[in-house]
Specification:
Blueprint lengths: L3 E6 L13 H18 L4 H5 L3 E12 L8 E11 L3 E9 L5 E13 L4 E2 L4 H9 L2
Antiparallel strand pairs: 1-3, 2-5, 3-4, 4-5, 5-6
Family: Belongs to the 4-hydroxybenzoyl-CoA thioesterase family.
Organism: Aliidiomarina haloalkalitolerans
GO molecular function: fatty acyl-CoA hydrolase activity
Amino acid sequence: MGEFSWPVRVYYEDTDAGGIVYYANYLKFCERARTEWLRAFGVEQDIWLQQNIGFVVRHVALDLRAPARFNDELTVTVVPQRIRKASIECTQEVLNQDGKVLCVATVTAACVNLATMKPVAIPGAIIEVLGRGS
């Protein structure tokens, strides 16, 4: 599967007292990009939520390499590494407008039944559209 990119601008609310992006906000940037990645394949998560199926982050690791600052224009990438029966593993990067990598995230999102919070197989319709993107 190829790389997906999503633009993000740093707002004042994203920064700490020093004017740099607060580390936890990189997780939000990555979450938005993964949501838009799925949307680009026609996967609207609210429809699956109505069926008690959702993706929850099971594991994440951040490698913070350089700071982003207020008003920076960033690009957040999503590169799926592995799609398993009940999870998706992705590598994500946050880059500044010069293409410098500011943060690298590795994320595993599990597909769960939201009523029981137990893992379930990723629905075939989702697997099918993601497979077409490879």
